[in-house]
Amino acid sequence: MKDEQEEGLTREDYQRQKQAENERFEKRDRKRVQVEKEYAREHGGEMPETDDTNVRSSAERKSRNLGHRLNWIIFGLIVAIVIVYLILFFVK
User: Fold this and answer.
1) Nearest-5° Cα angle at 78, 90 to 69
2) Which DSSP letter does residue 91 get?
3) How far apart, in whole angstroms, are the C-alpha atoms of residue 57 and residue 64?
């Protein structure tokens, strides 16, 4: 049903709709963070500050490690293929 409604939208209308959705989400998120901070203040707990740079650096480090691991796996597979061809070539 949602697709039927979106079919009649122009690209500009669709972009405005998406932008409005994003703005509503950001507004709700800011309100949620504010409420969480107030709750933590009232109940004596500290709100841990989330640092986007730590999250990004962690994600980048994980991505780099995965890429490094995959490179070694690819290298190992190539060596294994070469060994199999050598065995098949010399064993008759």
Assistant:
1) 150
2) -
3) 10
Measured CA to CA in angstroms, residue 10 lies from 18, 73, 90 at distances of: 12, 47, 66
Distance CA 40, CA 13 (A): 41
pLDDT in tens, 48-81: 566 666 777 888 888 999 999 999 999 999 999 9
Cα distances (Å, whole numbers) of residue 40 to 17, 32, 34, 52, 90: 35, 12, 10, 21, 73
| Cα-Cα end-to-end distance for the chain | 66
* Residue in this structure with the two tokens 């409005």, named with its chain if needed: 20
State how far the Cα of 67 lies from the Cα of 61, in Å rounded to an integer: 10
Q: Are 50 and 57 in contact (CB under 8 A)?
A: no
